[in-house]
Design brief:
Number of strands: 20
Shape: globular
Radius of gyration: 23 Å
Helix content: 25-40%
Oligomer: single chain
Number of helices: 12
Largest sheet: 9 strands, mixed
Bound molecules: ligand LLP
Number of domains: 2
Amino acid sequence: MHHFHFLENTLLCEDVPVKEIAAKVGTPFYLYSHATLKRHFQVFSTAFSGIENLICYSAKANSNQAILRLFADLGCGLDIVSGGELYRGLKAGFTPERVVYSGVGKNTDEIDFALREGIRMFNVESLVELELINDRAGLLDKRAPIAIRVNPNVDPKTHPYISTGLKKNKFGLDAEAALDGYRRAMQMEHVEVVGVACHIGSQITEADPFEEALKSLKAMILELKQMSIHIKYLDMGGGLGITYADETPPPIEAYADSIIEQLKDLDLTLVLEPGRVLVGNAGILVTRVLFRKSGSVKNFIIVDAGMNDLMRPTLYNAFHAIEPVVNSHKELIVADVVGPICESSDFLAVDRSMGSVDGGDLLAIMSAGAYGYVMSSNYCSRPRVAEVMVKEGQFHIVKARENYEDLVRGETLPPFLEA
Ligand code: LLP
């Protein structure tokens, strides 16, 4: 359940009519419900309360300061993949001990930043990275807490672009290489082995892939025990899917129970890195219809949001439900909902059956809280849109709409082009 609902044919976010926000803020804009974000975290956290845990929200899903602060205040930790995310996280109030750092391409500056701050754990994805972390920690006179990210070769049955736990993916190390990594890490002076990590993919809507991954991680932990390597943290990553259309992902409680059941006899702290499941259905993208256009084979609804604002349909062929912000029960049509960008891949929906709309109408692109704004760009010199958060009948702009000056900020003319 989320807090976007219709009352007398008008879409509300909590109790605020979306059309009123649009009138004041302009379109397009992302809109987040505070109550939904809070409840999603609480449901997740309650589901895992039967086991020692650290829930590290995956910043990449949505790293707006207001969203990060909200989760930090609720006692959440943070999963990061870059120095920029560490910066954002610290600024929003996460303490470094609640931060875990994954990613195949951490650079020296980023590693140093994380070492200086004293994060909880580096999830190491290659042997060269392990050596680099050891070197940098030595130079900074630190000891880096590390987990090795194991690639369990499990098929998460999701879109190939967001599957990460297969042998052919660039992520983590297979079991044998991981064991070798642990052996080497134990000899290193400036790393401390504290965990085993994995993340098999995103938008996973079945329970089996998680169970399979957990089995291989358990086997790894037992092998490590035999090598007298005792770890504190088992990081299961993120990946639990949400309902965009008719997917039926396991409920959070079932997902949690099956993990807890398998871990109950191991004395470990469970780390999780949920992203989409916390924020996906807590946000929408509101856009205005500019024109309607009928081709000989298609109806086009041209809206003011494009692929640069929400890239998921273009990149993954992802489905997002589209609702009228004011439902006037017009006749059904089949149409492509497209943006103003000069590419045929600029669509938000293809062959969608929906209520007819006219120029000026508002549409809500649903389930856009995760991997929406964060993946947006300035392509075609389109200013990035505003982000708004509603809490208890009030709305707040949490990211101003960019203007034309923002578009050229930082660009300079070399001397030979100056007048
Ligand atoms: N941990 C790691 C190491 C990750 O790489 C990811 C996501 C997460 C946690 C969070 O996964 P989640 O719980 O959100 O599934 N842009 C794509 C999704 C890419 C996910 C990348 N990694 C999309 O729009 O579907």
